[in-house]
Amino acid sequence: MHTGSCLCGTIQYEIDGPLGPIIYCHCSRCRKANGAAFSAVSQVATADLRIVKGEEALRGFDNGKGVHRMFCGHCGSPLFSKRDAMPDIRRLRIGTLDTPIKGKVSAHIFVDSKAEWDEICGDAPRYAEFP
Ligand SMILES: [Zn+2]
Ligand SMILES: [Zn+2]
């Protein structure tokens, strides 16, 4: 069981199941959405992710192509994304976890569109786009 929350604490969630590999996505959309060099993401099953507090504060940005980036309407923390085409999967923003997780970054994706000031470190595999 993992727990997590947004910056202001309004939204709290639990994950009762395994987390997928840790992926750093360097695409320009993730950089915008996070205000950062990349988003740190792990896939979880929709059925395993439960919002236990503050669901009414959850907001989504819809890119018009069936991708919804869900965030806290009070503090703006990005929490997870969901795709209409993949209803069983959520892509958790693992920076919002409050419990420790095992494992390290296992892949960098969309490195062809990474920020020019960002230096990718470590020996995890790097993929130009989505592998
Ligand atoms: Zn919040
Ligand atoms: Zn991305």
Keyphrases for this structure?
Metal Binding Protein, Guanine Nucleotide Exchange Factor, Chain A; binds zinc ion; 10 strands; 41% strand; mainly beta; three-stranded antiparallel beta sheet; single chain; seven-stranded mixed beta sheet; 131 residues
Helices and strands in order, then pairings?
Layout: E1 2-5, E2 12-15, E3 22-25, H1 28-34, E4 39-45, E5 49-53, E6 58-62, E7 67-72, E8 78-83, E9 86-93, E10 105-109
Parallel strand pairs: 3-10
Antiparallel strand pairs: 1-2, 2-5, 3-4, 4-9, 6-7, 7-8, 8-9
The structure holds zinc ion (2 copies).
One zinc ion binds at residues 6-8, 10-11, 72, 74-75, 77.
- Low-pLDDT parts are none
Strand content: 35-45%
The count of strands amounts to 10
Mean pLDDT: 97
Strand order of the largest sheet: 6-7-8-9-4-3-10
Tally the helices. Answer: 1
- Identify the CATH class: Mainly Beta
Description of the structure:
- The chain is mainly β.
- Helix content is 5%, strand content 41%.
- The longest helix has 7 residues, at 28-34.
- 27% of the residues are buried.
- One zinc ion binds at residues 6-8, 10-11, 72, 74-75, 77.
Task: Briefly characterize the structure.
The protein is mainly beta and 131 residues long. The chain has one helix at residues 28-34; strands at residues 2-5, 12-15, 22-25, 39-45, 49-53, 58-62, 67-72, 78-83, 86-93, 105-109.
